[in-house]
Amino acid sequence: MCICISFSTLRRITEISACIMCILGVFAIIFGGVLLGQNKKVTSDSANFIAASFGIMLGLGFILLLVGALGLLAWKKRNNCLLGIYIVCLCIVVACSAIVFGVSAGAYQIVQDSKDDTNCQKKDFLIYSRKVYEKAQTVFCSKDCMCQVKQSYLNPNTISSWNWSETQGKVKSQDCPTFNQSIDFTIPSDIGNLSDLTKLLGYVETSFDCSGFCSKQPIYYFSNSYKGQPTKDCKLELLNFLDTSLLSLANGGLAVLIISIIGCVCSCSLICHKHKREGNPYYDDEYEMPNIKTNKYR
């Protein structure tokens, strides 16, 4: 694993790669912490996986920071034992970052394919989200389920046939007694059950100010119909968010992968470099300090 680069250059690359690792760790901590803080207001169980994702990013940031700090400590202390531990940690980071890059790149491609599904008829999640919205439209604000809405937000022609009130009624379609009974299809297990899906749709409505999949709806069906009028299509907003997030994650994973490989190769090369095998000092100042232990490097 040794490479033909001067010993001083290897030392410098090892130091720089460790510094970059620390910087990437700090960035991940800040980014994950900010996003996690923004999502604390969400109480829906379906949002837990999003909070968990940001929490994982926060944890990975701390790991990168610790690994980078270990590399700098090994570089500063000139200790081969610390350098060996650093190399092992880098190998683990290489494996993890490769997995992150591969998974996020694959998911990014799925999102791109989903964007082309303009009628929500190809991908299971889009299909069943659209179907659940269609059922909500037939049940919510019907004679069997009065809804609570603000008249000022809605077109009079839209609500002329609705069973609605500004002071009473349900604010979520899933709270209607007949909603579950209206579902005449089976939701695939990889999406979850009906309760999971409606909670997720409610979270998406709240987060992106939207309602409907592959169509814009006049009210929020799964979050709070009384809070106002949505302006966007949830399918487009959700996929755009995932597009940006997954692309950033893939780029971040690739950056960590490259830096980790460079750091690992250079650190291994420090140990087996010809400069060391010939018994030369690791530092220029070792010519003036011959009593420095021989297991030091730089």
UniProtKB/TrEMBL annotation:
The keyword Ion transport does not apply. It is found in: Membrane. The chain crosses the membrane at residues 16-37, 49-75, 82-108, 246-272. Pfam families: Tetraspanin (PF00335). One of its GO terms (cellular component) is membrane. InterPro entries: Tetraspanin/Peripherin. Keywords: Membrane, Transmembrane, Transmembrane helix. The keyword Membrane applies. It is a multi-pass membrane protein. This is Tetraspanin family protein. It comes from Tetrahymena thermophila (strain SB210).
